[in-house]
Amino acid sequence: MRKLLFVGAIAAGLLVSGCGGAEQKSTPVAANEVNQTSPGELSPTATEMSPEISPSPMSPASPAQATPTGPAKIDVAQTRFGPVLVGEGGRTVYMFTKDKNGQPTCVDACAAAWPPVLTLGQPQAGPGVKADLLGTVQRPDGTTQVTYNKHPLYYYAKDQQPGDLTGHDVDDFDGEWYAVTPEGKKVKD
């Protein structure tokens, strides 16, 4: 019986010392080895750490790049240049001088910077928009793009909010881009 008590006492002693009863020693860490994030804080993402990677100004879910779920609506908004056509969310729409005979020529990289105004069905005219000037054209990828006075319409990816006109009078992709008047002409500065 004594042997069992002795073995039990030794086992209990080992168990206590293995469960944190022993003192822990810490080692000094150089300042450049310290992790800068505190507990509960997320470490920086690749985007935050690498300046070359930056998020797109407009995500694919934004109005300018979203797949249409119904007819597009074109409205008129007052700007510093006077009334201009706007699409989803009040975003300015543009015409491209390189487009001829109502056919869109802005595809691939161009369409990423200048997303086409797409629609499912006949686009709707808001107040001040001439319904008889609204139309559609099929794009090379099979989607349907809104036209106005036979000009295919586009958004500009650098426009961040309704009313922005950063794409007006821009020379890009071998053509010029202009906001569009309710009469279907390019806006003059």
UniProtKB/TrEMBL annotation:
One of its GO terms (biological process) is alkane catabolic process. Residues 1-22 form the signal peptide. The keyword Isomerase does not apply. It holds the Pfam family Lipoprotein_15. Residues 25-48 have a biased composition (Polar residues). Residues 25-70 are annotated as: Disordered. The keyword Signal applies. Coiled coil: none annotated. Residues 50-70 have a biased composition (Low complexity). It comes from the Bacteria. InterPro entries: Lipoprotein_repeat. Keywords: Signal. PANTHER family: BLL4220 PROTEIN. This is Lipoprotein. It comes from Thermobispora bispora (strain ATCC 19993 / DSM 43833 / CBS 139.67 / JCM 10125 / KCTC 9307 / NBRC 14880 / R51).
